[in-house]
UniProtKB/TrEMBL annotation:
<dbReference type="GO" id="GO:0046872">
    <property type="term" value="F:metal ion binding"/>
</dbReference>
<dbReference type="InterPro" id="IPR032828">
    <property type="entry name" value="PolyA_RNA-bd"/>
</dbReference>
<dbReference type="InterPro" id="IPR002646">
    <property type="entry name" value="PolA_pol_head_dom"/>
</dbReference>
<dbReference type="Pfam" id="PF01743">
    <property type="entry name" value="PolyA_pol"/>
</dbReference>
<dbReference type="Pfam" id="PF01966">
    <property type="entry name" value="HD"/>
</dbReference>
<keyword id="KW-0808">Transferase</keyword>
<keyword id="KW-0547">Nucleotide-binding</keyword>
<feature type="coiled-coil region">
    <location>
        <begin position="396"/>
        <end position="423"/>
    </location>
</feature>
<keyword id="KW-0819">tRNA processing</keyword>
<dbReference type="Pfam" id="PF12627">
    <property type="entry name" value="PolyA_pol_RNAbd"/>
</dbReference>
<keyword id="KW-0460">Magnesium</keyword>
<dbReference type="InterPro" id="IPR006674">
    <property type="entry name" value="HD_domain"/>
</dbReference>
<keyword id="KW-0175">Coiled coil</keyword>
<dbReference type="InterPro" id="IPR006675">
    <property type="entry name" value="HDIG_dom"/>
</dbReference>
<dbReference type="InterPro" id="IPR014065">
    <property type="entry name" value="tRNA_adenylyltransferase"/>
</dbReference>
<keyword id="KW-0548">Nucleotidyltransferase</keyword>
<dbReference type="InterPro" id="IPR043519">
    <property type="entry name" value="NT_sf"/>
</dbReference>
């Protein structure tokens, strides 16, 4: 382990050396004014792991107003996002985003998660108040570009072992800030680490304390968790410790009891498999809409479960119920409206393909599938394919082949007509002129009739559309 430690620290030094055009002058600037500066937290952890991004976190003994004055004129940009009251100055330089925070030794009222901000005098006092030991390492940024690794809490040992532990007693740490419990699950997802036994035990005991955290903060952590490299492991932590029961109760509810008479898949494990298979189809950055839809696509099954005669189990209309449940939960978590609707729409549509059979859909049905999917159609393709978790290789191959056929038909229709913009063959002005109408509900009613006709028949000439409308309209008169 000592050899690996040496190699990792050497690699981190090389990584940080590439940032010498920022770190060296910044360290010299603080040293020249008699202040200490340290790279700290996730920045050090990620440098050791070889995954450092462009966000750099620092801590210093200088007070916020001094930091602000030092950075003015040196930084490319300097701004206040409300962090100054908490001792944080935000800036950018040479493409790097910098956050410099004065040593802290906060106290918490243990009712909310908001600390009483108290500035500290020592690096050690600042580090021990952090969430996990792997985030409590520092690198001294001295003058002349000198870098010194500082690790009073053995964070490097925890990192080498892949263990998340707290600097202080976990009960005290989580009582101070319950969000750290959810952050533990998030780091499991992002880093692939495991929880120290005492951390897991504390989360199990203290899970109800997460209720003190605002929905917005919970949502942020959930997005980081599901966007991680190992999201199913992080989700398992939430479910196993009871956190999910407080913030996303639909997840543990999917762990349906299986009895010997009525067999069905474990919906929870199936959903994790679908999530993994959806991720396998991603290209580029994590697609949070797709990931959430994959995880939640079957949340409507528990409330719609029915034991059928003969030992079967049914979940009639679970996609409809599931879409409503998605909207309710995501609204409670303060998700943006469009994001919520996109996830709910995918959940609602994920079963539509199973009516395709062996290709019995008419061209009209294919058009409706494309129209209903809209901009979400590429994600819907991935979700439907990910939803195939059968171990029967023959059945899995048949499902893949059938969906291939559907996509081929979609492409064939695309070559013949504009599937992405299925509109009536007459616009509102033409409808009003033809039927001698004024603007109002009747125009919308006629427009919807023509759109349905367009979906059924495909493109029509103007003469065909006018004739159909004139034939239909008298049937609507009372």
């Amino acid at each position: 382990m000592e050899d690996r430690r040496t190699r990792l620290l050497a690699a981190a030094a090389i990584t940080l050396g590439r940032l010498s055009d920022v770190l060296t002058p910044l360290g010299e600037l603080f040293a020249a004014h008699g202040h200490r500066l340290y790279l700290v937290g996730g920045s050090v952890r990620d440098a050791v792991l070889g995954r450092l991004g462009t966000d750099l976190d620092f801590t210093t003994d200088a007070r916020p107003e001094v930091v602000q004055e030092l950075m003015r004129g040196w930084a490319d940009n300097l701004w206040d996002t409300g962090g100054l009251a908490f001792g944080t100055v935000s800036a950018s330089r040479a493409g790097q985003q910098l956050e410099i925070t004065t040593f802290r030794s906060d106290t918490y009222d243990r009712v909310s998660r908001h600390p009483e901000v108290t500035f500290g005098d020592t690096l050690e006092g600042d580090l021990i108040r952090r969430d996990f030991t792997v985030n409590a390492m520092a690198v001294s940024i001295g003058g002349l570009g000198e870098l010194e690794f500082v690790d009073p809490l053995n964070g490097i040992e925890a990192l080498l072992a892949g263990v998340l532990d707290t600097p202080a007693l976990p009960h005290d740490s989580f009582q101070d800030d319950p969000l750290r419990m959810l952050r533990a699950a998030r780091f499991v997802s992002q880093l692939g680490f495991r929880l120290a036994p005492r951390v897991r035990e504390a989360i199990v005991e203290m899970a109800p304390e997460i209720d003190r955290i605002t929905a917005e903060r919970v949502r942020t952590e959930l997005d980081k968790l599901i966007g991680g490299e190992f999201p199913t492991e992080g989700i398992d932590i939430m479910v196993e410790t009871g956190l999910a029961e407080r913030v996303l109760p639909e997840l543990p509810a999917m762990q349906l009891e299986i009895d010997e008479h009525h067999q069905h898949k474990d919906v929870y494990q199936h959903s994790l498999t679908v999530l993994r298979q959806a991720i396998d189809q991603e290209q580029g950055d994590p697609d949070l809409v797709l990931r959430w839809a994959a995880l939640l696509h079957d949340i409507g099954k528990p409330p719609t479960k029915r034991n059928e005669p003969g030992g079967g189990v049914s979940f009639h209309h679970h996609e409809v119920v599931g879409a409503k449940m998605v909207r309710k939960r995501m609204r409670a978590l303060k998700y943006p409206k469009q994001f919520t609707e996109d996830v709910a729409r995918l959940v609602y549509l994920h079963l539509r393909f199973h009516g395709y059979g062996k290709g019995q859909w008419t061209d009209s049905a294919v058009r409706r599938y494309v129209t209903d999917g809209g901009e979400l159609l590429p994600r819907l393709h991935k979700l439907v394919r990910a939803d195939c978790t059968t171990r029967n290789k023959r059945r899995a191959a048949l499902l893949r082949s059938t969906y291939d056929d559907l996509e081929t038909r979609i492409e064939r229709l695309r070559e013949q007509e504009d599937l992405e913009r299925v509109r009536p063959d007459l616009d509102g002005n033409s409808i009003m002129e033809l039927l001698d109408l004024k603007p109002g509900p009747d125009v919308g009613k006629a427009w919807r009739f023509l759109k349905e006709l367009r979906l059924d028949r495909g493109p029509m000439t103007r003469e065909e559309a006018e004739a159909a409308l004139l034939e239909w309209w008298p049937t609507q008169q009372s």
